[in-house]
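Memo to structure team: turn this sequence into structure tokens by end of day. - J.P.
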Amino acid sequence: MRVLLRVLLILLIALPLLALGALALALQGQPQVVAGPQIGPDDIARARTLLQRHDPRRSAPGVQRAIALTPRDIELLIGQAGSHYAPDGQARARVSLKAGQARVQTSLALPRSLPAPLGGRWLNVDLQLADTSALPEVQSLHLGRLPVPGWLAERALPRLLEAVGLQAQGDLAQRIVSRVQFSDAMAVVAFAWPARLRDTMASTLLQPDEQERLRVYVERLAAVAPARGADRRVALSALMPTMFSLARQRAGDGPDAVRENRAALLALALVANPGALHELVPASRRWAPVRPMTVLLRGRTDTPLHFLVSAVLALEGSGPLSDAIGLYKEVSDSRGGSGFSFNDLAADRAGTRLGLRARQDARALQQALAAPLRDDDLLPDVSDLPEDMPEREFVRRFGGLQGAPYREMLARIEQRLDQLPLLKR
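Reply from structure team:
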């Protein structure tokens, strides 16, 4: 019994010390990936082309398909996914490919709100993968200076995905992807869409508890929607206090303020975009129906969509992604759509700022948005900004995306946004 007690005492002392030592080895003071690629309109255009080419709505279930990803594609995907877990937006990746092998290096910053353990704020990951007849296998893994055997990394992966809330996504990826092959220039991913993908994706992207949280906010919108026969036009600034009073009440002093903000903004974005709610969340057909309404921001119907979609994307993890999507849309419009619009771009930037604050300063934003609002609180007057410009006119007047006049116009937009207390950086 004495020996057993001594062993237990040694373990009680040794295990925390071992854990502390592992943490000291894993976390470092500097990132190993100094800078990752910056997402831009061309990247969004490429992603859109790939999505259109492999649209599951136009593909028979079970049919094998393949998609070729460049190192840049993978770096951007990792950077965007990693930024969801780096509230300061500091997630970087570097990918090297050669025949049969891939090396993936990432640097993820701990939130600035957390103390830096043992002087290290960066988690640097160095992963070596090798081809197999199916999914790649881990050859080696280093977390900072801490080596992790490949077999241990593979066994730990399911628990890691579960810990960060990505178990369902990992399971779905394993169902869809059958093989990955590496060459010097690209990674070829073989996959097949499963049957009933829409329902599967909905349950994967929004877990049951998240769908239930979203339902609460959608049904709040159903309760405040204009009555039949009434004017269906509703200002976004009138809906925000209702939604965020509810978010503040539900979050209380608990840890779910960011999740409540996400659900509130997502409900607004889906309801403001007719048909989107039932398309993306099939279970919503069983919820209290929301009477049709036209959501306005500064008297326009397109502006709230720009604002809300950018806010949701930024809250999900990356302001640069929502900025790039907004910029891509304007470039695309200038090439045959409604034309390039700095007005829309300003709404994108305003939404991005709000979404980032909804994640980084969740409770303070709830309090601010729960108070009575005006359109001026969400978006400054940008009606004087140029819009509806074909590409030739946009290039002539502003020098394209690299022109000095274009950058000056962006700076003017940022200055106007800085004047709003809700959006001030």
